[in-house]
Amino acid sequence: MLELVPYDEALSRYEPVIGLETHVELGTVTKMFCGCPTTFGLPPNTAVCPVCLGLPGSLPVTNRAAIEYTITIGLALNCTIATWCRFARKNYFYPDMPKNFQISQYDEPLCTDGFLDVVVEGQSFRIGIERVHLEEDTGKSLHVGGATGRIHGADYSLVDYNRAGIPLVEVVTKPVVGTGSLAPVVGRAYVTELRDLLRSLGVSDVRMEEGSLRCDVNTSLAPPGAPEWGTRTETKNVNSLRSVERAIRFEISRQAGVLDAGGRVVQETRHFHEDNGSTTSGRSKEEAQDYRYFPEPDLVPLAPPPDWVDSLRAALPELPAARRARLQAEWALSDREMAVLLNLGALDLIGETIGAGSAPADAYKWWTGELARQANQAGVELPEVGVSPAQVARVAELVKSGTLNDKLARQVLEGILAGEGSPDEIVAARGLAVVSDEGVLAEAVDAAIAANPDIAAKIRDGKVAAAGALVGAVMKATRGQADATRARELILQRLA
Ligand SMILES: [Zn+2]
After folding, report:
1. CA of 136 to the centre of ligand 1 (A)
2. In terms of pTM, does the model score above 0.85?
3. Which domain range does residue 490 map to?
4. What interhelical angle do 438-451 and 484-494 show, nearest 10?
């Protein structure tokens, strides 16, 4: 039985090298080589035709929009765009691939040699991009009757070809070295940044849970300073950001166990298990020669004219890194505050709250404070917490105008979460407005002084700091609704 080595211990003896291969389904209207729709969730085998079913005599025609999207991705990743390249046939048999070959790109990818920068714990890492190439997706097998959803133990299998032929871009990194113990976090940060980049380009809906963004994670270990990297494993189809991090962590612990025991890591694909974060052996890894690649004879070569590439470059939108830097400056946030906000996924929420009229500092305070706490308590991500940016902006406005104090504002937010309506409706229904009526306040102040003669005496003797206790009593008596600043003024006046 293999011993897992605790993560920190593994890192004290070995250097990890990781690599990521990310598949992105493009958001084109039609498939890569035919006119079938790419809509997700259609009834099985309804979005198919002779081309994507691989029927004899059918011929593929390249989807121009898919080429355009791929070049756009390559440009955003600082790649060189090929002036001439070809599709290749990747030959293998699998039931979800009706042609028994996949049209892909092999030694002539459309985009090469780029990079993407990610920041982890204040440290910037430049992730090299080896290549960005275009291919077609396979269909989907469904194994019925087993406990695991895998083919082993299943009673029978069904296959759905709706996905077969959807344009798929593969983004392959160069080996990522020098990350040390941050390797799993860097891997996750890279996929997050890539997802945000693709979303900003509008080329894919990048939904990991629907499989439109899927990640294969390569991991290897070697002793520090070793002349060669270790043998890598490829954990397939990791389908959440958190799982990317967990898969790398697990492989580091597992491979350290193999190496410590004097064994050799086997080059293979591995399956990731969401439930316990482990990986198990899949199949031994094919070599390129097993696929008998050759140039696709049914398609003409691809030669994007330079002026087309230039026009796509000119049309690139503001990319996430540039946008973050701009917003951080506009909102006057520190690096630490920016990191907090990004960790919470609150960038757009805060942007929309400011757009609805809130000051940046207020938007930041409510989303990263009370609302982050509420989301955490409910076990949901911040955008799903159940309060809209417009509502937060209105609450901030009510605080600014003196109608609410922070404590009452929190009650209003609770009311929104409880489904009691808009901020104004909740203020009215719960009677939450701040009490600044002099008569009511004066009464509460006098009562607080009368009830706390010892504290009152201290304040008379000049211990002004003791006034806080009386303000507290006033707040309690008015159920938090007193104007605390005014109450303090009145207390000090009375006891001067
Ligand atoms: Zn089709």
Report:
1. 11
2. no
3. 438-494
4. 60
